[in-house]
């Protein structure tokens, strides 16, 4: 960890992380040239709007060689950074939009032969809904282009319920509802190669923490998934990186979500940016004296050469001491209102996830 940490400290850059959600903030006291920027009572909870504020810009301009780190890229952030000649620590917003578009993601993965849940893309109406039920059974998952925290993913078993939620002729993806458990990973695509975290067990739709059965409400390392499942995830991630990310000239942090059903792994979606778990996962890595994936993300976007022992750094995928769990509670709008984490296991079961009341009471 020391070599890259020293490089970042001595890089001449001052790193500014844009924070509009306190639950996504990160603390890096070991990097004195890193700070979070936020503003109380921000009218619009948007990183581009935050960066446009005069007091925020004055803070940034007071430091030499600013490097701006958004949680999620946007065209507005790109324009502000370009106007002020600030370094942007993020991929182009158009790449983010492409990969977060659930329908285009499905089509792109299909073309590249990646293992995704079968589906049909069509305009939403009674005819397409019935055709999907004929192909996949009555229980359907219907997704629209964009969403967060599961708010663009819906479960339906009849058209009357579905049409009250999804406007007619909206382009949608219809898939079968699969029973199983969810996994995720954090990754960083560097100029030297791909680094992956071990898979984490994803807490999804726990009724004590959310009203939405598809909303993510936490994660846990280790996942307790069988070794063969973990190895499938490793290879799927490598293939995704080689077939999709590298041709787009993507670099830096990203995460993938998976579902395991009947002992088969399906790729669900990509988060082509910092992930909701990146801050906590960084703490776990620091606790284990590992160079954080987030450090490599920073290094990829600044004008500094760095070296890496790729085989050594890739060993984190099998690291036995990467242990930690995090739960979040969401309100009816899907917003996180409480968070609690600890460097221990919260659930020893994957399907179903069971978190005892003593831990839930910490929220």
Automatic annotation (TrEMBL):
The keyword Chloroplast does not apply. It holds the Pfam family ATP-grasp_3. The keyword Nucleotide-binding applies. Keywords: ATP-binding, Nucleotide-binding. This is ATP-grasp domain-containing protein. It comes from Candidatus Shapirobacteria bacterium GW2011_GWE1_38_10. It comes from the Bacteria. PROSITE patterns: ATP_GRASP, CPSASE_2. Residues 106-299 form the ATP-grasp domain. The lineage of its organism: Bacteria, Candidatus Shapironibacteriota. SUPFAM superfamilies: Glutathione synthetase ATP-binding domain-like (SSF56059). GO terms for molecular function: ATP binding; metal ion binding.
């Amino acid at each position: 960890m020391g070599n890259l940490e020293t490089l970042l400290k001595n890089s001449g850059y001052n790193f500014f992380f844009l924070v509009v959600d306190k639950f996504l903030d990160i603390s890096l006291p070991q990097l004195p040239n890193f700070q979070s920027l936020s503003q109380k009572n921000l009218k619009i909870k948007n990183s581009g709007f935050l960066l446009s504020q005069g007091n925020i810009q004055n803070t940034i301009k007071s430091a030499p060689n600013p490097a701006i780190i958004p949680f999620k890229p946007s065209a507005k952030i790109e324009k502000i950074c370009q106007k002020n000649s600030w370094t942007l620590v993020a991929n182009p917003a158009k790449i983010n939009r492409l990969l977060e578009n659930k329908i285009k993601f499905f089509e792109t993965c299909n073309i590249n032969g990646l293992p995704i849940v079968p589906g049909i893309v069509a305009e939403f109406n009674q005819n397409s809904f019935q055709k999907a039920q004929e192909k996949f059974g009555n229980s359907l998952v219907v997704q629209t282009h964009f969403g967060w925290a599961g708010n663009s993913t819906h479960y339906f078993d009849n058209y009357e319920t579905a049409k009250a939620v999804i406007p007619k002729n909206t382009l949608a993806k219809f898939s079968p509802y699969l029973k199983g458990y969810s996994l995720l990973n954090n990754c960083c695509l560097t100029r030297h190669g791909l680094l992956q975290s071990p898979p984490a067990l994803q807490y999804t739709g726990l009724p004590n923490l959310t009203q939405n059965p598809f909303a993510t409400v936490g994660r846990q390392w280790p996942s307790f998934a069988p070794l063969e499942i973990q190895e499938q995830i490793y290879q799927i991630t490598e293939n995704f990186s080689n077939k999709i990310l590298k041709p787009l000239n993507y670099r830096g942090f990203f995460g993938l979500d998976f579902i395991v059903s009947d002992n088969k792994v399906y790729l669900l979606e990509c988060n082509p940016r910092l992930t909701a778990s990146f801050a906590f996962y960084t703490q776990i890595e620091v606790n284990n004296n590992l160079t954080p994936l987030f450090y490599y993300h920073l290094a990829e976007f600044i004008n500094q050469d760095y070296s890496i022992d790729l085989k050594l750094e890739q060993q984190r995928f099998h690291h036995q001491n990467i242990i930690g769990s995090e739960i979040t509670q969401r309100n009816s709008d899907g917003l996180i209102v409480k968070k609690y984490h600890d460097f221990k296991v919260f659930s020893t079961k994957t399907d179903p996830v069971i978190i005892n009341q003593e831990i839930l009471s910490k929220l």
